[in-house]
Amino acid sequence: MPHVDAVVARILGLPSRVRAVVVVGTGPSESAKIQRAVAGLKGPPVISETDLVTAALGAATIGTLRSHGVRLRRGRIVVTHSEVLPRLGPLFATGGGILTSWTERDTQTAALRDVMVHNDILIDLAGVAPDDCAPGRTLRLPHEPFDYAGLVLPGLLSSLGRRAYVSVTTDVLAACARALARLSSPDRTLPALDESLVVPAVAREVARTLGDRPTHHPYRRPGVTHQPFTHHRHPEGQRS
After folding, report:
1. Is the residue at 24 inside a domain?
2. How far apart are the first and last CA of the chain?
3. Comparing C-alpha atoms, which of 150, 154, 155, 117 is closest to residue 134?
4. Is the pLDDT reported for residue 163 higher than 90?
5. Which whole number is the average pLDDT over 151-177?
6. More exposed terminus of the chain, fewer Cβ within 10 Å: N or C?
7. Are 54 and 173 contacting, i.e. CB atoms less than 8 angstroms apart?
8. In the predicted model, is pLDDT for residue 237 greater than 90?
9. DSSP label at 185?
10. Does the residue 90 lie in any domain?
11. Read out DSSP for 74-140?
């Protein structure tokens, strides 16, 4: 992976018609640095792969809690190695959930199985929990990140692409999670990738969170003047 500064420079050097950028293959710390740097220079919104997985996993958690008759604001959630997805805790905090972080070092004071006696959901980001630790109440990362990212990205791009100078905040990720959770069913914690309602549902919820006041001004690098950009959609077949 190129140095963070090099990635930032490449993003800021993109044409003004690029309305959002997706960064994959970076860790959460590097992704956050890229997002802050680009936002500080009025660049396009930067969406990281970990953001997308965080939002989808948040939705899966809401759905699993609901299947056990627990609302998020009353949910007690344990996460192993929460640093893997550092925005997951703040996402739950927006809904009032109580999150406890657990690592193997905590085994000396409280075994994970004992901790789960008093909690509702286990999110095993580290893959260290035995299968019988919290049966029916354990969520793990997907084998392929796109299995989760693909649920969030199209709707998020649809909403962010109509706005300038927007950051992918925890509130935005929480909006994506809420939208997906509403489309889940008792036998599925997440909707199917080909569910036709997913994209518009995510886009609408993100728009509400952003105040539903789209702007259409292109981003500008310091010292560079662009001609006004009047088209709000990419030409057919062009990728951002």
Report:
1. no
2. 20
3. 117
4. no
5. 90
6. N
7. yes
8. no
9. B
10. yes
11. G-EEEEESGGGSTTHHHHHHHTT-EEEEE-GGGGGT--HHHHGGG-SEEEESSS-S-TTSSTTSEEE
Integer Cα distance of 197 and 46 in angstroms: 24
- Assigned domain for 111 exists: yes
Domain count, the chain: 1
Give the DSSP H or E segment for 48: strand 46-48
pLDDT, position 109: 64
Q: Residues 4-48: pLDDT tens digits?
A: 999 999 999 999 888 899 999 899 999 999 999 999 999 999 999
Q: How confident is the model at residue 215 (pLDDT cuts 50, 70, 90)?
A: very low
SS3 80: strand
Pair of tokens at residue 203: 């886009």
Residue-level pLDDT at 30: 95
- Alpha carbon distance 212, 64 (integer Å): 30
Does 118 reside within a domain? yes
Alpha helices in the chain (DSSP H): 4-12, 28-40, 49-67, 88-94, 112-115, 146-160, 170-182, 198-209
**The two structure tokens encoding residue 59:** 């939705």
Using 50, 70 and 90 to split pLDDT, how confident is the model at 214? very low
Tell the residue number behind the tokens 């050097």, with chain if given.
Answer: 13
What is the side-by-side strand order in the sheet with 121-124?
98-102, 76-80, 121-124, 138-140
Residue 78 scores a pLDDT above 90: yes
CB 215 within 8 A of CB 163: yes
* Bigger pLDDT: 158 vs 105: 158
Residue listed under structure tokens 């702007």: 215
User: What angle do the packed helices 28-40 and 4-12 form, to 10 degrees?
Assistant: 40
Q: Which domain holds residue 82?
A: 70-140
